[in-house]
């Protein structure tokens, strides 16, 4: 499974890759050298909007993201790396990139809004930043968007 590192221009793309379940690091304080070395050290694919930086990298570990819109960026990456957009969906924290874990309903009582607690049965949490996730309506929207992107790719 591919691992990614993205430059400072691609924070929103990083969140989307995490939603798909791909290990993606992003830190707005990383310099070009940090990106370059981390990509090599951790065998991550560098996604960048900076063509100069892209030229410094081994092309098999770097992808120049040409589009400005995050939707098109995501489509580019899904197509280029043939990402699996189903099996790992919602397995990673979108804030910090850690894998999220199932947590029992009783344990989230009082930590999520009451209407969420009463209407949901499945909860997950991030052990690193303690964020609690549940299968709300946004999950349906995300699934639809990804299904649309995949359908568009098949038509190319
Ligand atoms: Zn987290």
Characterization of the model:
With 156 residues, this protein is an alpha/beta fold. The chain has 2 domains: 4-81; 101-155, no CATH class. It is 40% helix and 13% strand. The chain has 6 helices and 7 strands. The protein has helices at 11-19, 32-41, 51-56, 70-81, 114-119, 137-155; strands at 4-6, 24-25, 45-48, 62-64, 101-103, 123-125, 132-134. The strands form 2 sheets. It has a 4-stranded parallel beta sheet with strand order 2-1-3-4, with helices on both faces. Helix 1 crosses helix 4. The two termini are 24 Å apart. The mean pLDDT is 92. The chain binds zinc ion. Zinc ion (ZN) is lined by residues 93, 95-96, 98, 126, 128-129, 131.
Q: Could you give the topology of this structure?
A:
Blueprint: E1 4-6, H1 11-19, E2 24-25, H2 32-41, E3 45-48, H3 51-56, E4 62-64, H4 70-81, E5 101-103, H5 114-119, E6 123-125, E7 132-134, H6 137-155
Parallel strand pairs: 1-2, 1-3, 3-4
Antiparallel strand pairs: 5-6, 6-7
The structure holds zinc ion.
Residues 93, 95-96, 98, 126, 128-129, 131 line the site of zinc ion.
């Amino acid at each position: 499974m591919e691992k990614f590192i993205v430059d400072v221009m691609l924070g929103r793309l990083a969140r989307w890759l995490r939603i798909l379940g791909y290990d993606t690091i992003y830190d707005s304080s990383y310099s070009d050298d940090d990106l370059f070395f981390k990509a090599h050290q951790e065998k991550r694919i560098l996604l960048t909007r900076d063509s100069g930086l892209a030229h410094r990298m081994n092309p098999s570990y770097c992808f120049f993201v040409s589009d400005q819109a995050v939707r098109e960026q995501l489509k580019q990456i899904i197509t280029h790396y043939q990402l699996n957009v189903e099996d790992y969906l919602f397995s990673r924290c979108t804030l910090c990139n850690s894998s999220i874990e199932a947590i029992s309903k009783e344990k989230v009582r009082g930590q999520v809004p009451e209407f969420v607690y009463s209407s949901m049965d499945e909860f997950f949490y991030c052990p690193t930043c303690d964020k609690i996730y549940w299968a709300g309506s946004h999950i349906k929207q995300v699934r639809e968007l990804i299904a649309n992107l995949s359908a568009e790719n098949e038509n190319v």
